[in-house]
Specification:
The chain is built from two helices and six strands, in the order βββαβαββ. By secondary structure, it is α+β, with helices and mostly antiparallel strands. It is globular and about 40 Å long.
Amino acid sequence: MRAAEITPVSTKDAPAAAGHYVQALRHGGLVYVSGQLPVAPDGSHHPQADFETQARQAIANLLAVTRAAGASAETLLKVTVYLVDVANWPRFNAIYAQMLGDLRPARSVVPVPELHYGYLVEIDAIAACHA
């Protein structure tokens, strides 16, 4: 496989990668979006924000990176959600349904003991790029 077949994706509409990774990679008509925490696009952190605010920001970041890669919410194939405290699952599900409407990509929700910076949710995804 040639490196030119793999294209990094970056947008200022979501927080910049804070480690040794990229916001997303495009390859073979797919985009692989790195885990998106509820960090503001300017990189500022607000882990004290309530769960609903965090969930909305993480989803917004995911969708911003997806759009920058030439995909969209409509082309999401698989979403993985990492939640601190499984008790947050019903609230996350309601916000996710509100933000995605009738769209229902495949999804996994994984309870975790903690996330970076003390956040309560992180989301990654795979989407098909628009032709």
